[in-house]
Amino acid sequence: MAVFITVSTALTLIVLAWVLRPLWRRRPLPMALTIVGFAIATGLLYSMVGTPSALYPARHVQPRTLAEGIARLETELKRDPNQIDGLRLLGRAYLQQERPIQAREVLARAVKLAPDDPDVLAEAAEARALADRERRVDDQAMTWLRRAVQLQPMHQRARWFLGIAQRQRGEHAQAAATWEPMLTVLETDTAAALRTQIDLARRDAGIAPLPPSTTAPTSPTAAAALTVQVRIDRALIDNMAGASVFVIARVPGGSPMPVAVEKHPLTNFPARITLDDSDGPMPTQKLSALSEVEVLARISSSGNAMRQQDDVETKPVRVALPAKTPVKLQFGAP
């Protein structure tokens, strides 16, 4: 920084001396004071409206952890709170850290800045549902989801969550009607899974199931399945009697919402678990459609799928798909 200031000051003095040389000859002392004053004013102006931190490359090192990245993003948003992309990124990061309440608040701010962006509306609605103890979609989230579908009728994420919200409220016929348009744009496997949910909603509404499709549903293939081998130390099993184990596959660096998950009693372990498309909680996002997933296992004494304070979790393992060998997860000593 000192070198930069010295060099820039010298250049400023040289340029001003050259430009003002006719006046210099007539009145040397006033001109000298004028030149020095210009140089000082230039430095002060840069310090106030420029970016002095750009002169320190070491300050631009990429964050090494998610927590460090979140801290930097929070600082940047305090400086400029109107960055929509920054708010969305921070909201996703909070969800990755399983902090849905903070994600809800941040994404609500994003909605205020971009009330007509269907992606922002859908993300904010999902965060509100995840922040609710019972994972229910409240009236505000419903308003955002309806607005998103109005703005972009085939917004799959918004339609899926809107249908879930309608099912939660007992509006089964409306949920089926919300989901049905997506059958024309989804891939065969995904459409087959969604069709099952639609028929369940129609059944609960007292409506006949959809007519048979001309395209037979494709069952998950062996190539799309992921085998997970989970081992648990016996002492841990004895200390957490009655607990459940969630085996989870999720998008690396994305939402904590699983793309595939199975729940088993702790007493069933050690065990081999096979995850496939049938284990997906969201028909619009399938394990077979991904090239990479993050796999982990969680012991939950409460049996709640959302992580609790006293839960025990393995370190996530990134796996390229299709996986040729089982993913090995270990709790406690091997």
Distance between the termini: 53 Å
Helix content: 40-55%
SSE sequence, one letter per element: HHHHHHHHHHHEHEEEEEEE
Task: Report the C-alpha radius of gyration, rounded.
Answer: 29 Å
Give the CA-based shape: globular
Largest sheet: 5 strands, antiparallel
- Sheet/helix structural class: alpha+beta
- Strand percentage lies at 5-15%
> What is the residue-averaged pLDDT?
79
Into how many domains do the coordinates divide? 3
Question: Spans of 5+ residues with little confidence (pLDDT < 50)?
Answer: 1-5, 45-51, 53-60, 214-222
Number of DSSP helical runs: 12
The beta-strand count equals 8
Short description:
This protein is of the alpha+beta class and 334 residues long. 47% of the residues lie in helices and 13% in strands.
Features:
334 residues, alpha+beta, Serine Threonine Protein Phosphatase 5, Tetratricopeptide repeat, 5-stranded antiparallel sheet, 12 helices, 8 strands, 13% strand, globular, disordered N terminus
Could you describe the 3D structure shown?
The protein has 334 residues and is an alpha+beta fold. It has three domains: 54 residues, no CATH class; 104 residues, Alpha Horseshoe (Serine Threonine Protein Phosphatase 5, Tetratricopeptide repeat), CATH 1.25.40; 110 residues. It is 47% helix and 13% strand. It has twelve helices and eight strands. The longest helix is centred in the N-terminal third of the chain and has 22 residues. It starts with a helix and ends with a strand. The N terminus is likely disordered.
